[in-house]
């Protein structure tokens, strides 16, 4: 299995964390399953229909998938050889790039061709006709830039400020404090945040704190699990473990023993 992580061009760096390409010619790869975890970000996946198809809960996923915020872990499996390109967006991307209310895609996905059809073309067909990953990424960049330029009215600087504050604090920040900074009522703040990010501000801060703790776990930057719990302001180690199980699907100890991360927040599970 080959994996590459590719940075976005400068003009998309405020929207895209990175592109990724995953390829395999192993016909037995279907014996393995992939696990995603809640990471606070939406994304896009393009899969060649003749080079392996992703399944979730025995349901075949479409060729070009736009997915929203995940509030829990999920497992995917692959059928046959595959050649897949993905994008990890920043949390605001569904609204600022596509003009979608982000909460409509929370814990689900859509076939992006359904949106492309309205503009007179099918994105998956364009990508399928290209012979290299770089050409496909270039086409995706052109497509996304056109989407951004046609949806500039959905940019929300206040919500971007909130996201920056949460990121800087690794999720350890009061939602009330954020709301008061914007001088919004609790109801208005939550509604606006869900439209742009897909989940409530409280849940997003919890996922951000979980992700910060997972980063320490990946880096082995601790002596014992209670150090991670303390660093990320969990009440105690048991609270940290419960949060980890909620968003990753298993305990920190099981994560270390059973999974090998191909990229951040995507693991291949070993038997």
Automatic annotation (TrEMBL):
GO MF assignments: DNA-binding transcription factor activity; sequence-specific DNA binding
Transmembrane regions listed in the UniProt entry: none
Domain of life: Bacteria
Domain HTH araC/xylS-type: 156-258
Record-linked InterPro entries: AraC_XylS_family_regulators, DUF6597, Homeodomain-like_sf, HTH_AraC
SMART domains per the UniProt record, alphabetical: HTH_ARAC
Name of protein: AraC-like DNA-binding protein
Organism: Chitinophaga ginsengisoli
